[in-house]
Amino acid sequence: MAEDTIFFASRSIIEHVLRGVIGVGALWAAIAIAANYPWASLALGVVMLIAFRGCPMCWTIGLVETVRARLRA
User: Fold this and answer.
1) Among candidates 1, 10, 25, which has minimal Cα distance to 60?
2) Angle, helices 38-52/56-72, rounded to nearest 10 degrees
3) What is the pLDDT of residues 44-70, one digit of tens each?
4) Residue 23 buriedness (CB in 10 A; 0-12 / 13-18 / 19+)
5) Which of 26, 34, 49, 54 has its C-alpha lying 20 to 30 A from 60's C-alpha?
6) Residues 8-57: pLDDT tens digits?
């Protein structure tokens, strides 16, 4: 039987939550500075996408996958 492919999961729950904190912080900062520094805001948006490995929903799916993988181990 083929092993399940996990696309968004991290190696540990702590790592995943840390990526979420970075992503939320970058998103918050991007929104806060958007009016005065649009290019910096865009750069922070890219940081957010990298930290979340996509959109916030992708991060949430990854959190569920990470927890599920840890419960199986």
Assistant:
1) 10
2) 20
3) 999 999 998 888 898 898 888 888 888
4) buried
5) 34
6) 777 888 988 999 999 999 999 999 999 999 999 999 999 999 998 888 89
Tell me which residue has tokens 């569920």. 64
Total-model pTM: 0.80
Counting beta carbons within 10 angstroms of the beta carbon of residue 56, is it exposed (0 to 12), middle (13 to 18) or buried (19 or more)? Answer: middle
Distance of CA 11 to the CA centre of its chain: 13
Residue 10 neighbours by CB distance under 10 Å:
20
Counting Cβ atoms within 10 Å, is residue 26 exposed (0-12), middle (13-18) or buried (19+)?
A: buried
Identify which of 26, 51, 35 has the alpha carbon closest to the alpha carbon of residue 63. Answer: 51
- Which residue shows structure tokens 């979420």? 20
